[in-house]
Amino acid sequence: MTADILDLEAYAARIGFEGEIAPTLDVLERLVERHASAIAFENIDVLAGRVPALDTPSLEGKLVRRRRGGYCFEQNGFFLAVLRRAGFDAHALEARVRAGVAADAITARTHRAVRVRLGGIDWLADVGFGTLAPTAPLRLAERAVQRDPTTDYRLVDVEGDVLMQCRTHEGWSDCYRIARSEPQPIDFEMANWFVATHPKAFLRHNLLVARSQPKGRLTLFNDRLSLRSGALVPEEQTLRTRAEFADALRDAFGLEVGAADLDAALTVVERRPG
User: Fold this and answer.
1) What is the domain-level CATH number for residue 218?
2) In the chain, how many domains are there?
3) CA gap 6, 221 in Å, rounded
4) Active site residues
5) How far is CA 71 from CA 45, 78, 141, 229, 273, in A?
6) pTM, entire model
7) Under 8 Å CB-to-CB from 103, ≥6 apart: which residues?
């Protein structure tokens, strides 16, 4: 299966999208919102010791037919294939993750996003950045504050790159720094392998699941379930039992996770200090 025969109808049904998927701004906005609501960010395959496959048939099988989620290389890789299949002028972007790191830390290019050109305007579309992903396209050339339904974002020029920031209850927080050059598929193959296998890779040692909701972004970080809405302090609770984790993954995030994968994820959560 290639992107040319990707099943757009099955994808539309998966995310609850109604109408024709045509290359317009209105459709792009609705696709980003519906995808973020329906397909959760999650790294359970990595915690189970697998390197996620990035070819379109594998991604369609996982995200659409098996009703699982994925991380940025999967989510935005498949979203790019969907957009191109629908006739959008869409291209890949790669970025250095800046969330949760010291200001002077140099990070690798381990994030994938999408650039979409409509009417001569470039838009940033990102359905795979976990807890801080915007649920609406952002104008890449705009430097004023932009807003999705619940949260403020802004893009800042930094040494030839573009830094995306999100307003949280702690103020403006760095998300990732977009490189100007267009990446090649091999760049994502290497980054995907690094994220899934490197002994110090963040997503190998932490459970992270996120999904957009009308009130904000619902996140499960290890055993902490939280709802973040814009700059408000997140609402939080702690999950303590296997049943609570299973219920949250199924009911709150819409994931069909097998027993073995759930056990693998909980093993990682349980061996963390504290």
Assistant:
1) 3.30.2140.20
2) 1
3) 32
4) 72, 111, 126
5) 10, 11, 26, 21, 24
6) 0.95
7) none
CA 127/CA 129 separation, integer angstroms: 6
Q: Which residue has the tokens 């498949």?
A: 78
Q: Which of the four pLDDT bands, split at 50, 70 and 90, describes residue 273?
A: confident
**Tens digits of residue pLDDT in 218-243:** 999 999 999 988 878 889 999 999 99
Q: What is the CA radius of gyration of the chain?
A: 18
The pLDDT tens digits for 179-200 are 999 899 999 999 999 999 999 9
CA-wise closest residue to 112 among 146, 70, 158: 70
CB 67 within 8 A of CB 255: yes
216's CB contacts (< 8 A; 6+ apart) are: 150, 151, 227, 228, 229, 230, 232
Range of 243's domain?
Answer: 3-270
